[in-house]
Amino acid sequence: MGNGIIISDSSSLRQVTDISFIKIHYRERKLVRMYSQLVVYLLCFVASVEITSAQRNCPSPQYLELGRAGTVECLFDESFSRYFWYDTLDSTTNPTVVQYDNGAKFGSGYDSGAYDVCRNGSLVIREVSVDHEHYFRIVALPDLIQEDISVVVTVSPSNPFPLIGLCDGNKSCYAQLNPGDSLTCSVPDVKPAVNLTWTAVGREDSALESEYTESGNNPLVTSRTRLVNIPFKDNDLVLLKCSSGRQTPQLLASDAAILVENPNGMIYDSVTPETKHFERDFVLVLPCLSNDAIQPGVVWKRKLAGQWRTIGAKVLGSIITIDEVYTVTEEGSLTIEGIGIPDEDIYVCMGTDGVNGSMLSYDVKVYVEPNEAYPHIDVCREDDVCTSEIGVPTQLICEATGSRPSINLTWVIPKFEGYLTLDTERSSLEQPGGHLYTSQAITTVTPGKKSVLLASCITENESTLLMSSNSSVLLQFPLNELETNPSDSWTENGSELQLMCDSGKDLSKLYVLWKRRRGNRPFETIAFQVLGRTNILLSSFYMSETGALILQGADIGDEGRYLCIRGDNQNEEVVSYDVNVYVNPTPNNLIITGCEQQSYCTLDKKAEFQIECSVSGIRPAVRLSISTLEVSDEAIIPFHGHDSISRGVDGLYDITEIVKFRIREDGPDKVTLRCKATGNHSVQFSLQETFDVRFSVRGDGVNGSLLWLFVIIVIFIIVVMAACIIIAKMKCRRSETTPGKGRQSFDDSEGGETVEGTELLQYQYSDEDLHILLRELKVWYKMSTSRIMPFPRADAPLDLASMYVETAILQREDGRVDKWSPLESYLNIFENMPERTVIEANPGCGKSFIISKIANEWSTDCESFPWNNIKLFIYLEMNKIGGMNSIYEAIRKCILPDDSTLSERRLRAILKGCSDVVIALDGYDEYPDKYGDSYFTRLLAGDVLRETKVILLTRTSLLPDKMPARTRYLRLMRFTGPNHHQSYVSKVIKRPNRILERLGNIFGSNGAVLEMLKVPLFFSMMVYLDDNHDITSQCEDLGTVTSLFEAFMELAENRTSGSWRYMDSLKLGKVAFAGLSREGRARWNSDDLRKKLKGGCFERFVSAGILVEEQQGRSGKLQRRGKEIVKFTHKIFAEWYAACYLADTFAFYIIAKKDLSQLDPFDNRHLFRFICGLKGTAADKVIRYLRSNYNADEFALICSIEKTGFTRVQQEVRDMFSKTVALEPTNRLQRHSTILLMKIASRKGIPIKEVLVKRCYALVPGDSGRLGIIEGITIPPLTSLKKLILLHVGNVMTSEETQNILIYMSKCSMLEYLSLAKSFHPFIDFAQSNINNGGDAECSIGGDDCTGNGEQVAIEIENGNRDPPYVIYRENVVDSLDDIKRSKCIVHWSPFADRPTFILDLHMGKWKVLTRQVRDVGVTRETCENLEDLSLDYHKQMCIEFMKQHGALTS
């Protein structure tokens, strides 16, 4: 130990330096020498007294490794300039080994090279030996600090941890031992000796009984401890640690562990195993605990051939691999890749935390899906629903082939509620080769009195092997002349024929069957509908959901007797029609022959004449009659020689009526004749012609001939003029279409040879390497981001820059999850950028679009690019980098060309050595390794490339768990209405027309489907498809999301070739359901999915734009093809097909909780709505599930709208809004559903009594006309809202929030009351104002008085003897908003209590205090102190001062 040595007098302190340099010649100055020694002793005595209070600069002891260079560390500040090191405690008689004097170093140890000294005083020993194990002393000047340091020489063992005898040199292991066995732990060849102790994990406070020994030759020793008794006690699985009991600097890890099992104590069969089913070739995952806890000790065993075998273990985070087939995860779960049938067995997991043990047992069963996805009925060929005609007792065979395990099949007769089981003969045969089974069910059906019977083959218990758990056959028996009293039905040739299968009886239906008989032929089946499924056998027909038969373009061949049979296997109804087709003649009028003109003719009075009236191509045949128009004229013109001619060709008739007559000489000069159709079928046609007959004597007909000549000349002139006009227009068009400048063809490729750079040292790179990387990055970005496909099946890729539409970007304020502020533009993303930035948005909102635009602008050196200081911009799609181990590997494989000269090592040097690097990772939600400890999850967490700036783009519902504290969060806002789509769609669809406006009206007027506007990809595809096919009229009556999406899917499917089968949708739906589940991944290998979707339907789904193929590991590159993967174009497609699969399953079976428990209702809300809209029976079960498991009454009501439409649930909506409805901050499903129902109710004019917004208000910048809610949701003005309460809108409201709320209030025309409850003063920041008792408020806005134009709202509080205090606006927050001033709404504000305290005078812009109520509130000082709403101390103090001002504070 040392101390400063100081001599002082009355004026100053003089520091004595370097006593060893006081040279006094003994011979000449003996007296002086004696005096100096006396002074030295005196100074040492003073130092020994003061040393105990001095702070050490060199810690002691210090450990140095034998045979290596070591440093005796000290830490003196810069005020010390001289150091003296001694290798002994006797510094008075021994010389220094090294000295430091203002930068100069000398001394015997320094000269020999054995020692050195640092600026801070640390001593460096070049090579530590055993001789250095003693005390060293340092004296530091000018303060004369003396310290002694003990140096301990250490020798580290070959292993950095104690060695347990059974662990074979590993830090952790597993072993089986009996209670009487012992365990040895040692640290060999170490210096100094290590004191080892045994402890049990979980009971570390007490060491276990052990025997400690030391052995070896100096200087090395071996420390050893032997555990005498293994403490199994109540637990036959013990986790033991061997630890060093004191500080052991030579051990990097001072603990080793062993998991010990007592094989005689464990009864593995004592736990009832839980049966687990896994599909063959998939990954088996068995958790070791039923909860999410992690046990430090885990052992997995398998009962193989009756013997228990250990297959894996985990000990304190270390994985013990016993068999490469089995993998134990860090959580203790057991995994098997590509599980097969031989893996079926009992598996047991034993876990311990050191104190308590647990055991779980699993009976693993491997299942194999049968060859068909449904039970196959022998008469049904290749479909799960069919019809068959039988006349005698017939055997029906149902089977499932190639499954494991076998499937129990049963024949039943479905009823409207439940079913009747038939006598069934079951069998199960193992196929050759074993393992797989063919299951069969046989029954015999005998024709009965009814004409139709529906029989179904179902699985007796719920089966996960079949996508469709039942198949059905509609059996047709002999009709027995059921077609009595048919109704006549006439339809025009080429028009639509629609026949209803409903006679008005109240009859539920399970099936509908349509048959037809033409002439004497037997009846043929047209179509049938079974359990909501429609099958068309004659392709020209189709059926509606109600069972009506519809034929587009009926012709003569469709005539016949039509029969409809519907029923529920208990009751039956038959409706029949005689369908007749009539054909209008060609031309569609009667032809008069015998006159020169059709409308009149001139005849010689003295001659006999013949008139013909004819019609051609008519059906059915009619009779023609020629007579005078006036009955009185019949005597003047006697008709004779009647002759009727009728000829039929191809079912059409040509009919001619001929009459002869002669007029009497005394008859009139003009008679009107009529020809008309008569007979039974003439009512189908309106055939009648009248014509005048003029009679003349000799040449009276000349004038008529001249008139006809004049008419012919006029017609000729008109034709010539029309031809001239047409020719002129054609010439004009040719001149306008003269070829001009064509569209430029851009070649984005760049040439140039790559220059081979030299391999450099770590973090050093050449300018040539950087130039190569920059060039290759920019070339790739130009190629991949300049033009994009806006949606699948679009006409052509579009220019990215021309498509961009500015969207709102919000930034989350620090520490406030619900507080967001706007960014002016995407150009501000890089301003003051931290190391990590997360950009979140919902699917389809433009995350990839905006980052592609940034990459494109960086690559093209765009002038508007505001961050030119970014030297490198790396853009990677995360769905392409699964399994990659570094950012350098990803760049090399996903961006750079195959012939690039840049290796991963050189890329590492560039990225490590280069400043201003930004890495953008797009699509964390699609990253395959997001749930594991991968390189890129560690990159996001800041464990890798900590100082490099990283941007992550992901869905709002899937954010990383581990992000640095300084991470900045940004959010892209979705489209909120049709008007926001105009600009985007007009750029995507280059030929916008009325379709955009009409679809916008559909969305805007229907609250139930308004959500679909938030999916730009869906909206754009809808516009594009309808623009090509022009079927918007079919969508005008859509009232639910399901009906809208059905119309959309019909459009998408019609654009592809080939037929779409219902089972194809179910197959894809099962795959989609697995991808949407909580553990699923919505990406598949293309070849695997193609095998599941057989018969070319995989290609049809890709062609329709529903699925999209990508290259894994390559961002669209084709030079080096990776593994092809496939995914849904948008999540909403996956939800649709998963809903089809689940609706079909739930329609016949009860809902298995495990099915829907894998789906989050909020993230998959479209899926739940689709299920309810597709199948009514499934909807009832889903609605019950939502209400019983989630208390989601609001969302269940939305699903009811999907099932029945709004009209049938209108009363429920009225009842809901007749009471107060609250928006809670913690339940996002309830909040979202309530807001949607509010929109629907407002559009339907349903009064909304009261809405309470409870701690979830959040200003949405840029949308002042809507009320903002957390997560970026907005509520449009509700025209039927009467009362609105905003509870705790914030600590201090800003003027923007004030304007938002008041503007929203003015737009709610029926709003009568607005309350701002438990929020601090919404129009004044008390930190900027001073409230004095009995006086006016003093405003301190920028140092001006209250008339300044500061950004904050200036107010003045006035107080008088007669009037209560009130607040006056000095700025135009209210005065400029005329709509607010005209509002009749009452506005209350209650800062600290539930009861209203202030009322707003909207016209004058004043807050008036309700004095009596303020005084009655009785706010105490403790009330202000305990307010949770006021988080800052000055807020609480202002609460007290404010209530004092208004006399409301009580003692």
Chain-wise SSE layout:
Blueprint: E1 6-8, E2 13-15, H1 30-50, E3 62-65, E4 70-72, E5 82-86, E6 98-101, E7 104-106, H2 108-112, E8 115-117, E9 123-125, E10 135-141, E11 145-154, E12 163-164, E13 172-176, E14 183-190, E15 196-200, E16 210-215, E17 221-227, E18 237-244, E19 255-261, E20 274-279, E21 284-286, E22 297-304, E23 307-315, E24 318-321, E25 327-328, E26 334-336, E27 345-352, E28 357-367, E29 376-377, E30 385-389, E31 394-403, E32 409-414, E33 419-421, E34 425-430, E35 437-445, E36 452-459, E37 470-476, E38 487-492, E39 497-499, E40 511-517, E41 524-530, E42 533-536, E43 541-543, E44 549-551, E45 560-567, E46 572-582, E47 591-593, E48 600-604, E49 609-618, E50 623-628, E51 639-649, E52 652-661, E53 670-678, E54 688-696, H3 702-736, H4 767-785, E55 787-788, E56 798-799, H5 800-803, E57 809-812, E58 820-823, E59 836-841, H6 847-859, E60 872-877, H7 887-894, H8 904-913, E61 917-922, H9 935-941, E62 949-955, E63 968-972, H10 979-988, H11 994-1005, H12 1016-1029, H13 1041-1054, H14 1062-1076, E64 1084-1085, H15 1086-1092, H16 1097-1103, ...
Parallel strand pairs: 3-11, 13-19, 20-28, 30-37, 38-46, 48-54, 59-62, 59-63, 60-61, 61-62, 67-68, 68-71, 71-72, 72-77, 80-81
Antiparallel strand pairs: 1-2, 4-9, 5-6, 5-10, 6-7, 8-9, 10-11, 12-14, 14-17, 15-18, 16-17, 18-19, 21-26, 22-23, 22-27, 23-24, 25-26, 27-28, 29-31, 31-35, 32-33, 32-36, 34-35, 36-37, 39-44, 40-41, 40-45, 41-42, 43-44, 45-46, 47-49, 49-52, 50-53, 51-52, 53-54, 55-56, 57-58, 57-63, 64-66, 65-66, ...
